[in-house]
Amino acid sequence: MKILPVVSYLYPSIRQDNINRAGTKLPRIFNTQPTDTVTFSAKVISPNKKAFRKLLRYDIPDMYTGKIMLSPDIVENFIKKGLFDKSIKKIAESLMPYKERLQHVEQEVLSIINKDAATNPDLMLSDAIKKHSSEANKKLLELQNPIFEELNELAKKLPSDAYRDFQELMAQAKMMLNHQCTVQNFNKSDFKYKLKRIAHDVYLCGIDEDIMAIQKLMKMTNYFPFQKFNKAGKPSNKQTDDLITKQSKYIKNMMLYFNRTSLAYNQELRSLFENAESQILGKPSLVAFSRKKFICSLDKILDKIDDKELAGKLHRIAVKLPTSQDTVSAFIVKASRRTSEKIGLDLLQNSVGSIEHLVPRSQGGKDSYANYGLSASLINSNRGSTDMQVYLREHPEVYATCQMYVDRFIELTNSKVIERNGIPKTYIRDFAYTMRRLSPSEKPMILDLSKLK
């Protein structure tokens, strides 16, 4: 899950199932292990994690890149001040001092915003992004089209049924990319996921009234009517008609509740409900192309074919479609549909420090200081559940960046900062020992601790 950054200790556990580097879940035919993401729960978080996260305010370098990470305190302060609802001039003035801490795409977007602020300082962030959306969309299509052409050519080898499904998927994608209305089937899981993503942003803002309202809406989705099948495994026409009636009535009730809450101003929520109603009733609606949803739909088609080698090739082509983490044009196109506040958070959240489990939890890694490192949310997510030996072979630069990480912790240990924050002063020795144990036998990671007092 892009993973959730450490911005609030009251985040709900709303992260979607873990995704690979390319940004999509892989079907079982690709045999990929789940990634080790960092999610946050409304439940009590362990004191160890709370104390460790506080260290991010001391300019800690990412153990994998050496880049200084953003502290959660910085982002929380921006949110409390309502920074992203102010003019781009004020936003640029506040964010530019942290530009070097941002990921490369976000750095470039911030430079664009800063340049716009010089000529049109009173512009709102969402309006500034929309100014560039048309040109960004053209550039994005230039990157996407060769990949779609490659997919089309290879897909001709698919069995006839799968190829027909593929052509339908491509036709639908083309309509979305050309901003044409399409008929989308309603998917309860997709609806819940999108609602949870919006809830994430609501929690970030920390307004009690809004949080209570989004929690109620999320709870309502648990009782959303779903399809029941007959003994033959298929719904009857009557069952389908009844389901449409029930779902339509239920979504209208959710909208009525939504309109009475403090969230009624939220355009993302309003669009979510309106699109859901159109999908339930089979009406065409304007839906933006989603790379993640496209790849998931393609994977469902590929999961049904016997030729796993062909399926793997098609999947690997599809995941080359650019993401908002990779290209400025994709970031701007995606951001052009969002509020100023959401765009502001998108600029920062990938660069916020998060707890990295050296041995991933999916591989039995423990929640203990000896298994903790600190890494920017995006980098942490990109590593996922990759075994540390494999990761170090693929990224030899980490030997040097881990020494930078260790050097900073030695400074904090020698100055008693570590102890004052309730972290064992043996932490950095434990980290060095763990990394040596997890590194490749042919090239062990031996970190210099000679300056430690």
How would you describe the overall organization of this protein?
The protein has 453 residues and is mainly alpha-helical. The protein folds into 4 domains: 1-22 and 29-71 and 352-453, no CATH class; 73-132, no CATH class; 139-182 and 289-335; 183-286. The chain is 55% helix and 2% strand. It has 20 helices and 2 strands. The chain has helices at 47-54, 72-80, 88-95, 104-119, 125-131, 133-155, 160-177, 188-205, 208-221, 237-260, 267-281, 291-302, 308-318, 328-335, 340-349, 377-383, 388-394, 398-414, 417-420, 427-438, and strands at residues 353-357, 372-376. Strands 1-2 form a two-stranded antiparallel sheet. Helix 12 (291-302) packs antiparallel against helix 13 (308-318). The longest helix has 24 residues, at 237-260. The chain is globular. It starts with 46 loop residues before the first helix and ends in a 15-residue tail after the last helix. Mean pLDDT is 85; it is low at 1-45 and 229-233.
The secondary-structure class comes to: mainly alpha
What's the shape?
globular
Radius of gyration: 24 Å
> How many domain regions?
4
> Strand arrangement, largest sheet?
1-2
Helix amount, in percent? Answer: 40-55%
Number of helices: 20
Number of beta strands = 2
Q: N-to-C terminal Cα separation, in Å?
A: 40 Å
Low-confidence stretches: 1-45, 229-233
Q: What characterizes the major β-sheet? A: 2 strands, antiparallel
Strand/helix succession = HHHHHHHHHHHHHHHEEHHHHH
